[in-house]
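User: I'm writing a short methods note and want a consistent example. For Mid1p, I'll paste the sequence; you return only the structure tokens, no commentary, since I'll be parsing the reply automatically.
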Amino acid sequence: MIVWQLLCVIYCLLVTTIQGIFQDFNPFADRNISLKIPSINGWGENKNIMTTGQQTIINSDSIYEWTPILSNITGGKKDSFVFTIDAEASGYGFAPTYEVLMFISGNICHMPANKSDVELTIYYSFNESILDNPAIGQSAIFQDGYIQALAISPVQSSSSNATSTYSNLYVVTELINSTTQQPLPSSDTSENWEYRLSISENDLVFQWDVRPWVEILDTDMNSALLSTGNVTADAKVYHNYSIYDPSLYDLYVYSYEDSVQLNENYNLSLCAVKNGPHLVSSQDTSNKTATTNNTSPLEHTNLAIQKKITEYGGSVSEMFYVSGLNASTTYVAYLTKKISNSDGLSSVGGILFSQVYFTTKSTDACSLIFDLDFCSDVAYSVPTSSFSVDNKTLMAQTYDHIAEALYANFSKALQLISCDADEDARYSPIMSCDDCAEAYRDWVCAVSIPRCSTTSSQYYIHRNKTHNRNDYLNKFIKPLDDYYEILPCIDMCYTLVRNCPSDFGFACPNDATTEDLLYQSYNFYMDTDYATCNYIGNSSLIEVRALDDT
Ligand SMILES: *[C@@H]1O[C@H](CO)[C@@H](O)[C@H](O)[C@H]1NC(C)=O
Ligand SMILES: *[C@@H]1O[C@H](CO)[C@@H](O)[C@H](O)[C@H]1NC(C)=O
Ligand SMILES: *[C@@H]1O[C@H](CO)[C@@H](O)[C@H](O)[C@H]1NC(C)=O
Ligand SMILES: *[C@@H]1O[C@H](CO)[C@@H](O)[C@H](O)[C@H]1NC(C)=O
Ligand SMILES: *[C@@H]1O[C@H](CO)[C@@H](O)[C@H](O)[C@H]1NC(C)=O
Ligand SMILES: *[C@@H]1O[C@H](CO)[C@@H](O)[C@H](O)[C@H]1NC(C)=O
Ligand SMILES: *[C@@H]1O[C@H](CO)[C@@H](O)[C@H](O)[C@H]1NC(C)=O
Ligand SMILES: *[C@@H]1O[C@H](CO)[C@@H](O)[C@H](O)[C@H]1NC(C)=O
Ligand SMILES: *[C@@H]1O[C@H](CO)[C@@H](O)[C@H](O)[C@H]1NC(C)=O
Ligand SMILES: *[C@@H]1O[C@H](CO)[C@@H](O)[C@H](O)[C@H]1NC(C)=O
Ligand SMILES: *[C@@H]1O[C@H](CO)[C@@H](O)[C@H](O)[C@H]1NC(C)=O
Ligand SMILES: *[C@@H]1O[C@H](CO)[C@@H](O)[C@H](O)[C@H]1NC(C)=O
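Assistant:
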């Protein structure tokens, strides 16, 4: 009986409160504060739950956990938001002990040009008076298109429950003259600033990273291949997503000129990068690619970005193939990454990485190939075959067949060596036939599929198109033009000697006694900003050593 009475009391209280809110309780009605409508479903969708003329309700300016609002603001206007603190929503379900952290983050998506003396400022406080007098709150300024701030509410806990000391966080945004630190007088609506703001008890919904986290593998005249860093490393800790989910990363490619504009105002703004005048993004192309049946990615000639998850040398990364580019042109690529909440990858917010630059080659002497069946780790430019100038798929297949044919005899020989026998009978207790076979395959691929460059360097060998590394290339490839070869790294030869039974008698040229041979056929890995030698396989095994100049 007592339970029912109690429930009735709670219910009746609830009903009166709700009625109170909906009927006539509007604390802002007599103040000059514009109420902002939150976007219910995150990005883009800005559902208007309050139509003009209707009575405003207090809830209509709420900002919800993880869900960014999108708003426009001009001089002389104030935006106000209320975030309802839920102590239970914190920290992925762990009950907070001392305090509730609220992460405020945001991006400027668009701002008027040449507004260096205007700042978009937010004020936040648990005290409702901030709505009238922003100065009583803490403040933060959007810089380089980005803002982040932290609000902390202590927790009152009893043995059975914990509640936040404050129940609401109030946020006001306003344009400020950075010289006078005064609110901007009203300006015309063409001076519109568009921004996103989010409050979450779990994470910064908008983030940025000073690392580029994407590497240019190679380019040719009309395409480029980029790869992210090791995805496995950060997925394990607390994020809830599969490292094989290709929607994790996206790439946006800008012209150099447009990126200069972008970097001036919104260097750190994910929203500006996503909405800006990019030439192409992997977002635009994901569906097109999915519908183009099973054609090789190498056959795409239109401006597009295709994604691929690759597992390679113990790490998983996402590759981006950008096709349809112009020759001798510098492009700028921005990598973005989704972040995850308790439901997995989230479609709102995310991380913006630092930009990378790449320049396409001026001639078609080299062609970028990847996705080979046998030499699966080959992903670089090779001398263009005069037999298949316009068909990179065919070119890739030809190179692959040459390497596979060279490997065929070796695999027979490997069967004659007792490597997979009992551990005692093996040539080495730690190396297996598989290690040897893999080292030999990588080595064969590197020496039979030369890496090509059109620029000269002290580390590269100039090759006359009639005098290639080997006769197979002269015969079956017949390069279109002279080129520079980036020699294989000598470490691949060392790995081969180390991983294979001594019965094979593999030996590598000794740099002390056969210097000429060495520099005609291999080179050393050096820590420069471009490749000094070509390595296939697990590159973490490369031993960096200084080249002896004497
Ligand atoms: C509210 O603002 C408008 C213009 O921004 C102004 O005309 C009006 O007088 C203000 N009302 C009050 C009560 O301050
Ligand atoms: C902000 O303004 C831009 C153009 O001025 C418009 O396209 C956009 O829909 C506006 N956004 C909101 C949330 O009102
Ligand atoms: C911004 O300033 C630059 C140089 O200071 C000028 O070239 C450009 O036209 C200006 N843009 C606008 C929209 O006023
Ligand atoms: C809120 O701020 C006003 C003005 O500074 C102050 O008078 C009031 O005591 C504050 N309220 C609380 C609960 O701190
Ligand atoms: C939780 O704690 C608050 C304040 O300490 C108290 O008012 C409330 O009744 C408690 N709720 C429950 C379900 O124990
Ligand atoms: C900011 O204030 C300074 C000093 O009063 C003034 O010269 C400048 O024009 C103001 N800027 C804007 C955008 O109002
Ligand atoms: C990639 O990350 C995983 C997990 O941290 C690690 O085991 C692996 O060695 C890394 N791969 C490379 C090449 O560093
Ligand atoms: C791609 O397809 C998904 C689901 O089929 C859809 O939600 C998304 O809007 C599409 N994207 C584009 C760019 O068409
Ligand atoms: C994909 O395959 C379908 C049927 O097999 C064919 O009609 C369509 O033209 C193909 N699309 C492309 C882009 O090759
Ligand atoms: C991870 O996300 C999936 C849905 O994508 C969900 O079913 C699962 O419960 C989540 N796991 C955790 C630990 O939050
Ligand atoms: C390119 O070569 C591949 C493999 O021989 C072939 O399947 C494809 O049809 C060729 N593409 C063109 C456009 O000729
Ligand atoms: C390449 O070699 C051929 C034959 O030896 C020779 O005729 C030609 O001049 C060489 N080309 C260059 C650019 O050295």
